[in-house]
Amino acid sequence: MEKEKCKICDRDSNAFHYGVCDFFKFSAKHVLQANCCNACKMFFRRVITFKTPLKACSLKEECFDGATKNFGCRLCRFQKCVTAGMIHNQETITLSTTLVLLSQMEFDKRDTLENRQSFKEITFEEATDVAPVKFILKSSGQVFDCSDWERMHQITIIDYLKRHNISRMLTAADLKAFLKGSYVYSAILSLAMHDYSLKSGFIKFPEGVDVLPKEMSVILAAKSELEIGIKCRLIGRLAELQVTNEEFLFLSMIFVCNPAVAGISKSGAILLSSYQQLYSNLLFKYCQTTHQNLAPTRFTDLLSLSHVVAKTKQDIASAVLLLKFYKPDFGFRKFSKAQLNVC
Q: Which is more confidently placed, 12 or 282?
């Protein structure tokens, strides 16, 4: 009997691995089982455990599109694995194990924010590089103002995103584009969810520090709706939907895995889209376990939070522009200047 071809490299295959499917033609509920050779299976396993990003392709990311395959290009081979559905069908990705992992990462992120500080003053560009941010314990008695907490929060979020497996599967250029395009959404949702869990009606930094600088008071006096929008809108919607911590963890990953971020490559967009679909599937499965027949409605309501986060981000950008106009001498730190250009 003639052997089937590996869906990745077109070589003879005699084993089925990682539930390979035609990702663009079949949903997660209709997985087309197809063969994947042992070599591609092992290659995929190695890549998802890499601690450094993949090297960029020098041939327009088309090394595995034709009849002749360039096995020297890890990026294109990995991209082929992703489009074949390997991300969706790893045996280790389950509802329970993913929740445990995300919960621990969220706990570590908050612990870093509240109890540590960056080892040295770093720029926004340095924070979005491949290397992890170095933290040290916060000095006893040290007091942070709004600007300090804002900078520390953004650095913590960026470092947190770097620690996800997806970041190690991106090239250095795609990683930077991913971090710049996604960290704001993660930061806004994370801050709001933490204060909502404490039954607070507005977002604030640790130690009760206001998220808006005191220099903005003259602006907010004339535009109170801007302050309400930034501090209260998202928490209000979280409370209205009674969002659980589990739903928040999945939503956070769905929002940050945006394949449309500026500057992302084709392979980067495919990877982000694949992970976004993966977390969407897990969230829907969670909704099925908690809301049964009402799962589709619950799932849609939760996804609608993306519009609230986007509106909050827009309000923050408007407030900053007004501050720059009314207070042109306001001393934005170097880190803040660079990140505001991204926002």
A: 282
Domain stop point among 48, 67, 91: 91
pLDDT at 92 (0 to 100)? 65
Q: Average per-residue pLDDT in the chain?
A: 84
Q: What values do phi and psi take at 324, rounded to 5?
A: -65, -30
The whole-angstrom separation of Cα 248 and Cα 197 is 11
Beta strands in the chain (DSSP E): 4-5, 12-13, 116-118, 135-137
| pTM > 0.70: yes or no | yes
One domain for residues 157 and 284: yes
Residue range of the domain that includes 324: 95-342
Please report the pLDDT score of residue 16 as a whole number: 53
Could you tell me the CA-to-CA distances from 271 to 17, 45, 168, 261, 302 in Å, in that order? 19, 15, 11, 12, 23
CATH of the domain at 65: 3.30.50.10
* Alpha-carbon span 97 to 103, nearest angstrom: 10
| Nearest Cα to Cα of residue 200 among 235, 247, 248 | 235
Mean pLDDT of 9-25: 56
